[in-house]
Write a structure and sequence with these properties.
CATH superfamily of the largest domain: Vaccinia Virus protein VP39
CATH class of the largest domain: Alpha Beta
Bound molecules: S-adenosylmethionine
Helix content: 25-40%
Number of strands: 13
Radius of gyration: 21 Å
Strand content: 15-25%
Oligomer: single chain
Order of helices and strands: HHEEEEEHHHEHEHEEHEEHEEH
């Protein structure tokens, strides 16, 4: 009898410990929803955790998953969330913190060339010399400057919401005497592009940080020419061995769901990069015509 009570007591303590551990794992509230950049900014998204696998392997408890009610607001705010996120969820995905300009050197790291093969990515965009490309979430302009020689009669609009990033782009542009890269200051909801003005919107490792993904993608879709494309490049969320924080990766399924929500039509996914998906979308009418 004593043994049975002792065992039940032990079992109870064990279960309570598991619940506490799970809550600790998913918690640490960060009240950054006001959109204050300085509080939401984050270091590079490299996963340096002692915990070798991303939390994406361990889905949150069911009570935390979004309901599918159609009258639900576009975004949900939750107190219990990842320390790498802003506590705001869109279509079941938590939006990540922004990589702040203090992490700019990470974007320019020499190892990026073999880790991400950026030149192969740019070659696979099949650009025409006259194309207008918007590099949205341009950061230091790493991709803007790789694209610039491929569109000598066109231009690259390097859009970012951090003025410090645009300053870095402006300095590099002047140093290298490049005339067809134009820094553009966007807002959280609007990339500030003219309607029907761009052939390609390229978003490399940026979309998962958009605080208002729906509004941003609606504005980007409106800025596309009729046969324009959106290309999302995101670290593969399906692969736990890609050494990037979970919220800075995306699964292909999630990316397609979020683009479909703003009427963008999936065209193809290219999987030639070592760690990232290259997912191509077009406008609905372009596909139908
Ligand atoms: C991880 S960096 C990637 C930079 C660049 N694409 C690269 O691969 O080198 C993400 C960038 O997206 C920018 N960003 C976040 N939200 C944005 C938004 N709504 N509009 C434009 N840029 C945004 C951040 O300021 C940051 O510079």
């Amino acid at each position: 009898m004593f043994n049975l009570r002792f065992t039940i007591q032990n079992l109870k303590s064990f279960l309570i410990s598991i619940v506490v551990l799970l809550l600790l794992f998913w918690s640490v509230p960060t009240p950054t929803l006001a959109g204050n950049l300085s509080s939401a900014q984050n270091s590079p998204p490299l996963s340096l955790s002692l915990f070798p696998f991303s939390p994406s392997l361990f889905p949150p408890p069911f009570s935390l998953l979004p309901s599918t009610d159609s009258d639900e607001p576009v975004y949900q705010e939750r107190v219990v969330h990842s320390p790498d996120g802003i506590g705001k969820f869109y279509l079941g995905r938590e939006i990540s913190q922004i990589m702040g300009h203090l992490g700019a050197a990470w974007l320019e790291r020499p190892t990026r060339q073999f880790e991400e093969q950026p030149q192969e990515l740019v070659n696979a965009l099949h650009l025409k010399p006259t194309d207008v490309v918007a590099d949205i979430g341009a950061g230091t302009g790493y991709f803007s400057f790789l694209i610039s020689p491929l569109v000598p009669q066109g231009k690259v609009l390097a859009v970012d919401i951090q003025p410090e990033m645009l300053e870095i782009i402006e300095t590099a542009k002047q140093e290298q005497q490049i005339n067809n890269v134009e820094p553009v200051l966007g807002t959280d909801t609007n990339p500030n592009l003219e309607p029907a003005s761009i052939d390609l919107a390229l978003l490399v490792d940026a979309y998962h940080e958009f605080e208002y993904p729906k509004e941003m993608m609606q504005a980007i879709a409106a800025a596309l020419k009729p046969n324009g494309r959106v290309i999302l490049v995101e670290y593969r969320g399906e692969n736990p061995f890609v050494p990037i924080k979970a919220l800075h990766k995306m699964t292909q399924k999630q990316a397609r769901k979020e683009m479909a929500a703003v009427g963008l039509v999936w065209q193809e996914t290219m999987n030639f990069l070592p760690q990232q998906h290259v997912i191509v979308f077009g406008k609905k009418e372009a596909k139908e015509s």
